[in-house]
Amino acid sequence: MPELPEVETTVRGLTPVLEGQRITRVQLRRPDLRRPFPDDLGQRLTGATVTGLSRRAKYGLIATDRGDTMIFHLGMSGRWRVDPAELLKHDHLILETPTQRLALNDARRFGSVDLVPTASLADFPAFKTLGPEPLGPGLTAGYLHTALAGRIASIKLMLLDQRIVAGLGNIYVCEALFLGGIAPKQAAGTLSRARLDRLVPAIRSVLLAAIEAGGSSLRDYVRPDGELGYFSKQFAVYGREGQPCGCGGAVARYAEGGRSTFWCPKCQR
DNA sequence: CCATTCGCCTGCGGGC
DNA sequence: TGCCCGCAGGCGAATG
Questions:
Q1: What is the pLDDT of residue A212?
Q2: Residue A36 annotated among the catalytic residues of the structure
């Protein structure tokens, strides 16, 4: 499931393939993902040269010399494939450069592709309400204290809210709360300053470790089969219901709004 | 404003 | 073996 670290490694993997390259052909193999592709996507991208790639929250950004930026979101099953030998069923968007071919594959089609003028990137609706980047200077215990004040929803749900912090998903919220020793059900507004002081570095540490693991498990961020952004990870609690925690207790799970939370009741209080 | 629920979509694994 | 069902997930819309 692509969260911030997976998008980051995807962007790093795409950079050497796309940066400075001209897009010679754009092929849409279906009209939409979660939303329709922009009508003029092919027209505005074809012939343009990619000037740089970056990331905001869980969105990947591909800027061109035509003044446009393509914004992609991988949803839950999206991935870019580099120079695939053959196209697969869910390769929905194909970008060609003079030397390579990229396929955006997304089986469940929860992803999206948009094209916006780079100058008005800040006006992109999804960007307007995003909170600070968790790896940037904006995420501090003081910020969280203010942002969470009075909130009765659980800290688990608040950390999933992109308006509070941008880029976390279910996996890394579970992992960060475990590392911070914080019970996921605690009302967000009741976390002490000391707990927030533990939570912020826990979030950063979990994300940085995942990015590092992604980079090191991908040869130059691209596996020999051309897959980008997916790699095996070891989680402390996520997906480990019933298995032993390092403390000797067992990892527990509960569902809230149809979403699973994994945690260790002994370590997280 | 805040909290909660739902729909979107398809592959996969478990149960029968 | 094959079919059905539930689950997984981010996000935006709708509802209370």
A1: 85
A2: no
Footprint of strand C on the protein (CB under 7 A): A 1, 3, 34, 57-59, 73, 75-77, 108, 110, 125-126, 160, 162, 169-171, 238, 255, 258-260
- Between CA A30 and CA A48 the distance in angstroms is 22
Last residue of a domain, which of A102, A128, A154? A128
A159 and A86 in a common domain: no
10-residue mean pLDDT series, chain A (269 residues):
87 93 95 89 96 94 96 89 88 95 90 93 89 94 94 92 92 93 93 95 93 68 60 78 90 83 93
The total number of structural domains in chain A stands at 2
pLDDT of residue A215: 64
Q: Determine whether A201 is an active site residue.
A: no
Q: Pick the catalytic residue from A3, A6, A8, A175.
A: A3
User: Alpha-carbon distance A251 to A238, whole Å?
Assistant: 9
Q: Which domain covers residue A224, as residue numbers? A: 141-263
Q: Which nucleotides of B are covered by protein (CB under 7 A)?
A: 2-6, 8-11
Residues A115 and A183 in one domain: no
- In the complex, which nucleotide's C1' lies nearest to the CA atom of residue A153? B3
Question: Of A75, A105, A128, which residue is a domain's last?
Answer: A128
